[in-house]
Batch of 3 targets.
Target 1
Amino acid sequence: MDNSPGFADPARHYTLLGADGRDYRSPEKGTLGGHRRSRIYGRLDCPSALQAIARGGYVAQRVFFADAAVAEQAGYRPCGVCLREAHRVWKRRRDDPPPIRPAVPNVSAEVTALIRLATARSANAISLGGGRQPEAQYALDALEAAWTARGGHILTRVDWPAQAASWNRQAHRLTDWAPDLWIIADTPGGWAPVARRLHITARWSPDRTLGFGFLDTIETIRLAGPDLLDGMTGSTTSGGRWWIRGNDIHRNQHPTLFAAP
């Protein structure tokens, strides 16, 4: 249909391009034009577009949009000739995109459960440890904020890499302050070598160690080794409780019941 400049004719319909990149019929004319192959949109009186039309090499690829928002949703960028400011903004977004925040889990139920477990053991001064992945550090951030907000003390916070020649330094930092409890956020594979090193120090006890839901799996026991984590407990992702006895892991998914059988 005709989409030449001028007032809309009530008896006519116009073909516009939608945000999904598909043509649709509209009783209103488009306010902006575009070039399908180059994916550029601009004003209907753009000098660059009019010159191209005059040369006869543009019309077959011409499309029209209701507004700029639809054009950009369809994947078109502003013309650098007739929409200079919009083009500058687009180019700035392209060349300097905002940082991508890593996806992080919702750990509020786990934090509440871990604080409940720690309080039941009359803990006040605790040490935190975890892997360097964003999910683990986010979990520890949330726990640290909640624990200190209620008047608790953090003696130390230690992180460790997924691979290392030895986790001796991290193990000593975790045990130097003799905390009431340790709270761990890591994957089973990340926690296992650290736990083995802690076991060697003889100053760490699994029954004084709590863990986030990352460790709520039989893999935690298998990777650490037989009986090494006996007595360790923690929160499930839903706020229930898990605990290790020997070489098995047990669970109580109810968020208010923490006593082991």
Target 2
Amino acid sequence: MYQYTFPIKMTEVAFGANQNIFNVFMPGEREPKPTDPSVKVVKDVLALSAWPEFQPITGIVTSPVMRADGSIHNWPGYDPETRTYYVGGLRLDIPEKPTKEDAAECAQYILNEVLCDFPFAEEASRANVLAALLSVLTTHLIGGNVPLGLIDKPQAGTGASLIAEIVAEITTGDAACMETCPDSDEELRKSINSILMRGPQMVVLDNLSDTLKA
């Protein structure tokens, strides 16, 4: 017996490679086990003109997602409102109705405890790191593209990469996807394709030394 946990519109190669979306009940087993679907099953699914029994999905996330009403998708599985599938193990301990004072206290903790030792040039730079953190948290509320964040530094060893790691750890519960930007357009395209196949929530292009072209 096959159980499709959730659908993704993709190519045969990508669909077949994502074994986490295909579970099989083995004889004598009560719980399904993830496995690679057969080529025939992949082709049959992709050949369907419509998937009325499959829920639409916009992404796989490894950290809780904020809904439009301010509530949190905080448990593993599919959320129809955000159309995301949460596969992480991070749990948030948040009051049912947090106040502005609660939010201000959390922001001050991040600014005064987590980021206190970084040599920011001015308060605006420190505030922009908090803005970058909030941008990741509210991505699903924006309904469009999110601007790139730029962390520059006067010299090596001042902690720019560490700041990116901190933002990733707080917002996704996982390490940042750190990538060195290739020198050529061809290698950059290959790198982007590789990143998209892995599907990280946050990507950091580390140690940029030239103009980043579209």
Target 3
Amino acid sequence: MSNLTPEINGTMTRGETGVRSADKPAALQHGRRHASVVLALLLHAAVAVPALGQEYIDLEAEQRAREAAEATGQIDEATMPPGPAAVEPGDAAGSAGELFYQMQLLQQEVMELRGRLEEQEYQLKQLREQSLERYLDLDQRLKGGAGATAGEGGEAAAVAPAPQGQSLAGEEEAYRAAYGLVRSQQFEQAITAFRQFLVDFPGGRYTPNAHYWLGELYLVQVPADDESARREFTLLLERFPNHNKVPDALYKLGKIYYDRGNRDRARAYLTQVVEEFGNSGSSAVQLAQDFLSSNFQDS
């Protein structure tokens, strides 16, 4: 038994050892394969990581090289990505200069337009003031009777005919109708009526009055037709030098020439009113004196 035991034990030991010995190559082979896989992965990682790092380093170096080339103006067009064409420095400076020049031109045009606008506004203001003054003068004459002698006034004095000649049939009615349009401030219609009156009654008793009121009406228009007014007042002086509206026509001619800038001729007409009709009682005498005092003090 004792002999068997060791043998058995030996057998068992050998058997156990044999089994373990038989399994050991397989396990070792498996371990080796596992180690090979791990080693392969490690080698792959060792190769891949430097490659990635090198790729990153290459990209960064390429970017720095590109920025340096752009800063120095030395860019290889073959390596440039497609994009908008580069603008030469000279072209950019020229475009900026042209744009600045155009802006200066526009600013100058705006300033000129502002100046013209201000000038037109001033002229319009003057026209309004002159029209108002003429209208007030006309209204005063309508109320007081232009050219009336002392003691005369109102409409009767305003429509007083020339002393020579007799009125024709329908003349007085036509004249009063035209004059009524003046009093009702229907100035355009009054101009038409007085023109027609001069056609129908060129040598009538009221013809001088028609010339005078046409001159007044032309001055009241906006803008004033001072040339037509001058013509009517001149016709009155030439054809009817003794009519009671002569001083009024002289006064109006003086103002027309003053507005035109002809001070010498204006002063001559106004002085004639004062010197030749000072004792006539005409309201034009005082108006001429006031105008001379206000506008010819330095003369």
